[in-house]
Amino acid sequence: MAKRINPKLNVAIAFALAIGLSLSVTLIVLGSRDSSTSGGNNSGSRNDGSQSTDSLAPTATLPPNDGTAAEIGESSGLAFPADMTGFRSAANPNGQQTDIIFLAPPTSATQFVTDSKLPTPVAGERLILHGSPLWGLNPDGDVTISSTESTFGKVHRTVELVTDNADPAAAVQLRVTLTPAG
Fold first, then answer.
1. What is the pTM of this model?
2. What sign results for the dihedral spanned by CA atoms 114, 116, 117, 122?
């Protein structure tokens, strides 16, 4: 004998299938409307006027280097002074930024700017507005911060010189941030 299916169960199954079908059709219609109004191009613009995160992801990266002054200097056009001390660099893993810090006598710091073909630093101007694993955002003591920036090939170079006002002959702290150019 064939077993009979409960009629209430048949109604419940039919109802669930009808809801699933309507949701599927709705999603298909909305999906095709979305791609037709955006021209089928999902390159960042959305219909609500905002940007998708796909187009906000950075694409340019810095030239690879081993983190040494020689390698960084070659790829960025920076002419690190021979008498610098305390050189340290920290690179962002995605190749979007390298931070560098070192100390140099005042005359060598000035020569670094000249030899690196950087514009004259502007006293009192801050261009590096982030902390780093290498430095805190605001240096301690009575200091003057001078900043300059320029581009060398595919590398944008931002440099801050931190001078101790209490002892102008003291070593200048140089903070450098390298990012992909434009």
1. 0.67
2. negative
- What stretches of 5-105 show up as alpha helix (H) in DSSP? 7-37, 53-56, 69-76
Task: Please report, for the chain, the start and end positions of each structural domain, with discontinuous segments joined by +.
Answer: 7-56, 69-180
| Three-state SS at 87 | strand
- Model confidence band, residue 140 (pLDDT cutoffs 50, 70, 90): confident
Nearest C-alpha neighbor of 69 from the set 54, 84, 48: 84
- List Cα–Cα distances, 89 to 9, 65, 123, 132, 179, in angstroms: 69, 11, 24, 10, 13
Nearest to 86 by CA among 65, 98, 99, 100: 100
CA angle 107/121/134 to nearest 5° reads 80
Task: Tell me the per-residue pLDDT of 65-119, one tens digit each, with 9 for 90 and over.
Answer: 888 999 999 999 999 999 999 999 999 888 899 999 999 999 999 999 999 999 9
